[in-house]
Amino acid sequence: MDRDQTEKDDEASGQGRPTLKTLAFMTGLGVTTVSRALKDAPEIGAETRRRVQLVAKQIGYRPNRAGVRLRTGKTNVISLVLNTEREIMSFVSDIIYGVSEVIADTPYHLIVTPYSRSQDPLDPIRYLVETGSADGVIISRTQPNDPRARYMLERGIPFATHGRTDMGLIHPYHDFDNYAFATEAVRHLAGIGRRRLALLAPPVELTYHSHTLNGFTDALSEVGASEIPFNTVSVDHSIEQIRMRTAQLMRRDVRPDGFVSSAAAATLAIVAGIEDAGLKLGRDVDVVSKQSSDLLHLFRRELLVVNENFRLAGAELARSVLGWIGGATPGSLQSLSKPTGVLAYRPPD
Question: Where exactly are the structural domains of the chain?
């Protein structure tokens, strides 16, 4: 029986890497049998399938994606689209780790599609869609009315957003409950006697800005605390800008005695600004900050933290995209992580 086009393409482009012919030679089987064993064809015995797949894994065999695409119309690629100038490295590495864990045992692999601040965020999405470079897409820095989500919905491209939109359109997402984070942070600060609170918020154009701000202001009203406005910077500003503005704020007669910070990197700048003003963390002012790793207590034990798990986010986003590709309804592929409380430093046992 003649081999299918995928097998021919695999061998034609196989210079310098293992091919179906390599696997056939190593297993003593025919190329067609090897090809079908790799595809879990039921007419191939279970022991033969297991042996072929084990050898393929050991020698690093990968099917030629051009051939796979010709045969199936799929690329077996998930693209993670990231703004490389805005995302901090811990976020990037943890998201990638989470996505990679989920797709490790699937035919899919991950590519990162970067874009810069000078680009239209829609540009890399258009490229992926128009060139058919990926079967599914993951995006971050989600906006309330996100043109990227609308574009992919209109074109039927499976995708998931890190964060929610507010367009009245149903699509997969994973989000952290930033309303609950801000609420818990304010309640905790009020519980330790802090009454004048400042919020270092996310950028106003992102959806989680309103979630965070609404949680903060609602909780202020609930506990009877007052807000000291700190809206000249966001977590997207540079460390030096946040440090300088914090120091200016803390030198005023009426200054905050508590901060809520939406990002760990920004929190380092807040603490530096507090200390530039001659004040002491934990005595004159307390700070509740989100973090994605256990680094903040290594920096200052007086900090109060709320953990956000970006590895979990990556895993949930990958599951959502794969689920949509597999035929699940987009509305069933939405998840929301809740904060588990404000944590003070605890010395190791």
Answer: 5-71, 74-176+311-337, 178-307
CA dihedral 217, 218, 222, 226 (to 10 degrees): 10
- Residue pair 19/34 in contact (Cβ under 8 Å)? The answer is no
Contact of 208 with 243, CB cutoff 8 Å: no
CATH number of 74-176+311-337: 3.40.50.2300
pTM of the model: 0.81
- pLDDT tens digit string along 183-218? 999 999 999 999 999 999 999 999 999 999 999 999
DSSP one-letter string for 264-317: HHHHHHHHHHHHHTT--BTTTBEEEEEESSTTHHHH-TT-EEEE--HHHHHHHH
d(CA 82, CA 11): 34
Look over the chain and give the mean of its residue pLDDT values, rounded to a whole number. 90
* Residue 312 CB-half CA count within 13 A: 13
What kind of fold does domain 5-71 have according to CATH? 434 Repressor (Amino-terminal Domain) (1.10.260)
**CA–CA dist 244, 92 (Å, integer):** 27
